[in-house]
Amino acid sequence: MVAGALAFWAAAWWTNVQLSRRPRTRVTALLMPALFGITLLVLWEMLVRGLNVSPVILPPPSAIVARLASSWPVLWGDLVQTFFKGALAGYAIGCGAGVLTGIVADRYPFLRRGLLPVGNFAAALPIIGMAPIMVMWFGFGWESKAAVVVLLCFFPMLVNTVEGLAAAERSQRDLMRTYAASYWQTLVKLRLPAAAPFIFNGLKICTTLALIGAIVAEFFGSPTYGLGFRISTEVGRLALDMVWAGIAVAALAGSSFYGLVALLERAATFWHPSQRG
Amino acid sequence: MTSEAGVSLRSVASGAGVAGPARIGRRLVQGNALPVLTVVAALVVIWYAGAVWLNAPWAYDQAGRAGVELGPVDLVAATWSQDRPRLPAPHQVGAELWRTTMEVAPTSRRSLVYHAWITLSATAVGFGLGALLGVVLAASIVLNRAMDASVMPWVIASQTIPILAIAPMIIVVLASLGVTGLMPKAVISMYLSFFPVAVGMVKGLRSPEPMLMDQMRTWNASTSQTFWKLRWPAAVPYLFASLKVGVAASLVGAIIGELPTGAVAGLGARMLSGSYFGQTVQIWSALVMAAILAACLVGAVGLVERLTKRAMGVVA
User: Fold this and answer.
1) Chain-chain contact of B173 with A128 (C-beta, under 8 angstroms)
2) What structural domains and CATH numbers belong to chain B?
3) What is the pLDDT of residues B235-258, one digit of tens each?
């Protein structure tokens, strides 16, 4: 088994090296990472089986998939609680508040000069540590998770919005002035679209933060469902296949959320050089 | 705009010693110090007001039981001095910080310095390993096309996965393998800090312009010469930018890593035990300590950055 795993690894690596020598096309650009991912899974499966690793330490991928299929209703309930209620609600409120505060801060330079360093500083802080306090204030339900996510998303959004609103060029703003455009017209028609790449950058950062915040907040107290609750309790019961299944669900939810925002970005900022490739 | 802000802050810091008061006053008005102080002061005021608002029900309840009428002044006094407030007032947190750092021996388990040190050591080990791994991975991605095409998409995809969710599992699995204490937390720290460094360094090592790369070719430079003499120096600014992100991330990792270990020691454990026993002041003081730690770590990386840039002859 172990030898087979190593042989498969060598073969896959050799194929990738061969592929990398060819000119890059769409097919190879998709094939090579796919091959790498498959190799990892095969290695994992064969090494775990070949070396008789205890399922308490590392279950093979096949066992995780089987568990995912058999426990899907439970995991779906967890996903709804953690992602659709906690993370998404907090994401919407936190990002909305961040953008609005950014616009207000941009309007008043004094506020901007004060808020930007504070926001940059706060973005480096372990805000996730506010989780126990939020659980205390808002109870064990999804509301406290949403509150943690709001805190996590606020500062990256604020900083990105303020930076984005400064992105419109001087000449473009002057042009708006010659049109006698009001502040709001300039904001909506020039500066917000110009800020869109920055705002989307913040939105993408926040997708990951939202899921992390919602899951970690559940470690401090939750109802008897939710991804964070599932992961921490099943770890305690040493049911590691269930833990991995929960992680797989979280990873899938996180990646699709990120992908969705990236698609929205492509649709909204198609004019930007980074999107024209 | 950000760099301009950084410059003016720095000139305030370095110019304060030589410049007269008038100059400092002008700096205060023109630079960011005054706005920042205003915002911070506003936050403190909001904090105090929030403490009154959130703690008022409990204060009224207590007063009702004692049969006392609460005037506005009494109410404020009562809300700012509770034992287990919903939101402790800043001076309560400050007093707790002072008590647990200055009045207790730093080796005692009641000392916040002791807990901060536990967290800091896990952070440092994890950050060191993570930065090293990130740099090595970035170098191999840049130098090897097969690595680039097959691994890079996964490095990026892994950013979208809530890595912290697997922290408890790493702790338990490593414990069952007989690894306990500092290392499991350091592994989580490493995991968190390694991605920003890898992504930033790939960008940095690719940052030399094609013209410069062609110049190296005309000199018949080998791959390793190109790497050490062109790519590496060009990547230094990117390295420090991503190290700052990485060090903050590894502190978060160490704190989260302390949660499932059963609240033994460390800042994360202080938060968890505080939330078990409703000791809000303890949670807040651990939070403030974590914030101070984060600021010091980012500041230390920034200091090394400035020293390195000065040694390299780049105008900092």
Assistant:
1) no
2) 2-87 (no CATH), 112-312 (1.10.3720.10)
3) 888 898 889 888 988 998 888 888
